[in-house]
Design a protein that fits this description.
By secondary structure, the protein is an alpha/beta fold. The protein folds into 3 domains: 10-268, Aldolase class I (TIM Barrel), CATH 3.20.20.70; 272-304; 306-379, no CATH class. 45% of the residues lie in helices and 12% in strands. The chain is built from 13 helices and 12 strands. A hairpin with a 5-residue loop joins strand 10 (339-342) and strand 11 (348-351). Helix 1 (32-42) packs parallel to helix 2 (70-82), helix 5 (117-126) runs parallel beside helix 6 (144-155) and helix 12 (313-329) crosses helix 13. The longest helix has 34 residues, at 271-304.
Length: 379
């Protein structure tokens, strides 16, 4: 088995005017006029690399699935006109062949493709012996192993210019973002593969313009190496994902803001602490979402319950005991001793064993039979 090659520092082959790699361009190349107009405006914003989707793997058929091969020439021409290298997504070996024919500068492998080792290997085989940079997005699901595996497959072809792209993860929890950032995953990738540069794609994480700045800011503050942001000269008329694309003017304003802010944060030497608080914030958002769903279900139970639909005190006591024991196993209950610690919000306090918890545990053990209870507890 061919061992992975060493990674070239991308500062050696990608010009970064701001100290960060900035990839920008439309979700989809739609016309020659559109990609050229967008590129000319972005060229004024210190962009490192011009992106544009040619083949769009949409979730359902019938939506715009990309302009196809003819768009490669438009993309390359826009790059020449502005002095920018260009990048596009490939999903099958035929895409690789067509991109090489048109001398596309950088390829990227999308999240849906990264999810399939067979698809990634087919692309890797088509790249054997070819020296071209490849960006690899994380898989749709939060599986670090798949992401690392895709990177390794590309590296084993001999390609040294590899970049990972964090674009968030699809989970069962409804969230304000289209894809949850789950920052611990790109941070763990950095820990395991410190030689691989990582960009963040806040456009696909957020799904909406109004969240992009804060996610981009977070990415730079935790030390990622740059950003990949969708930008269209007329976002409102975009044929794909109009809600998450910025105009070039908006892009330029955002970059100026987040670069300044991230430099201030790094100067404060608080990156590690900021990473931990950011993870706490993510967990808090998930908890509030789950609690909201729980309340909604309880209200449905309340609306539908009858006298016969209540549960017995014995059953309710058993539920309480089971859940309290699960909480105790996860060290969420006090141990009876008073000691300094942190509450769930992170504020200093003194931990004590909950008297109410002890009462519920005692009740479940000593009073298993009693009158009927409602689904929410004692009537």
């Amino acid at each position: 088995m061919t061992p992975p090659t060493e990674i070239d520092k991308f500062s050696n082959w990608l010009i970064q005017r701001t100290g960060k790699c900035l990839v920008a361009g439309p979700c989809s190349v739609e016309s020659e006029e559109q990609i050229l107009g967008t590129a000319k405006e972005l060229a004024q914003c210190d962009v490192t690399l011009l992106r544009g989707g040619i083949w769009k793997p949409r979730t359902r058929p019938g939506s715009f699935e990309g302009i196809g091969e003819k768009g490669l020439g438009w993309l390359k021409s826009a790059g020449r006109a502005t002095g920018l290298p260009v990048a596009t997504e490939v999903a099958i070996p035929a895409h690789v062949e067509q991109c090489l024919k048109e001398k596309i500068d950088v390829l990227w492998i999308g999240a849906r493709t990264t999810t399939s080792p067979i698809a990634v290997q087919a692309i890797a085989d088509s790249l054997a012996g070819i020296d071209i940079p490849v960006m690899i997005k994380n898989p749709m699901n939060p599986d670090l192993g798949l992401w690392i595996g895709a990177i390794e497959r590309i590296r084993r072809t001999g390609i040294k210019r590899v970049i990972a792209v964090h674009r968030g993860f699809s989970t069962h929890i409804k969230h304000k973002y289209r894809n949850q950032p789950l920052w611990n995953i790109p941070l763990e990738l950095r820990h395991r593969m410190p030689e691989v540069p990582i960009l963040c794609d806040p456009s696909h994480i957020c799904g909406r313009q109004q969240y992009i700045a804060s996610v981009a800011q977070a990415a730079l503050e935790i030390g990622l190496d740059g950003l990949m942001i969708e930008s269209h000269w007329r976002p409102e008329s975009a044929l794909s994902d109009p809600g998450q694309q910025l105009s070039p003017a908006q892009f330029g304003e955002l970059i100026g803001q987040v670069i300044r802010n991230s430099e201030s944060a790094m100067a404060g030497n608080n990156r590690e602490l900021g990473n931990l608080w950011r993870q706490v914030g993510e967990i808090d958002e998930d908890l509030s979402t789950l609690l909201s769903q729980r309340v909604s279900i309880l209200r449905q139970i309340e609306a539908s319950k009858t006298e016969e639909s209540g549960i017995s005190r014995k059953s309710w006591a058993s539920i309480c005991a089971t859940r309290l024991m699960a909480a105790a196993a996860k060290q969420l209950l006090g141990n009876g001793e008073s000691k300094p610690g942190l509450c769930v919000s992170g504020c200093p306090h003194t931990e004590t064993r909950s008297g109410e918890s002890r009462k519920l545990m005692l009740h479940s053990e000593t009073n298993p039979n009693s009158d009927s209870m409602t689904a929410e507890g004692p009537a």
